[in-house]
Design brief:
about 190 residues, mainly beta, Lipocalin, 8-stranded antiparallel barrel, 2 helices
Length: about 190
């Protein structure tokens, strides 16, 4: 077999593998992206109302997957107008200067039946750090569901600066929650 033929087969195989991954659209009405934080030891749930995902995934080739997200920070909703207003301020999210948070996957691998690990870079307030999110993936003929959780330290992203940087009344650990209902892109 000629070297040209072998190269052509390798290129075709690579393109076929990449092309076979399914593109998914998030059903925002039935999905949740948010976090659980705590105030004085009591947890409170928060969600972002506006976010966009780019998801390309095939369980047979998870390493080819892409999970990227852009979150509109000013869409934060903790069911408390006062708390939401404070979170958007300079000491917390500083949403005026940093209106979006971003996640870009850098790798995916299967770690169990229907369970995968997404490695990526999370950028909040101009600070980018590597994170890992274990996710569960379930798929039907009509769509898929992706759920995942990971815990971050808010001070790693300068969320809670000034007096809040060392004040434990606002918990330092924040649990990120992802629960997405997905449809195949037509």
């Amino acid at each position: 077999m000629s070297l040209t033929r072998v190269a052509a087969m390798l290129i075709y195989g690579t393109l076929s593998a990449t092309a076979s991954a399914t593109e998914w659209i998030v059903d925002n009405d039935h999905s949740r992206l948010g976090f659980v934080a705590s105030y004085d030891g009591v947890g409170f749930e928060t969600r972002f109302e506006r976010f966009n995902f780019r998801i390309r995934f095939d369980t047979q080739q998870p390493e080819e997957g892409v999970f990227d997200a852009v979150v509109e920070v000013n869409s934060v909703n903790s069911r408390s107008a006062d708390r939401d207003e404070a979170m958007l301020g300079l000491e917390w999210f500083n949403a005026k200067q940093f209106p979006q948070a971003r996640f870009a996957s850098t790798g995916l691998r299967q770690i169990g039946a229907g369970v995968f690990e997404v490695t990526g870079r999370l950028a909040v307030k101009g600070i980018t750090r590597a994170i890992v999110i274990p996710i569960a993936w379930s798929q039907t003929d009509h769509g898929a569901r992706l759920t995942g959780k990971t815990t971050l330290r808010r001070t790693d992203y300068q969320i809670g600066i000034g007096e809040w940087e060392s004040d434990p009344i606002i918990g330092f650990e924040v649990e990120i929650i992802v629960d997405l209902q997905l449809k195949r892109m037509d």
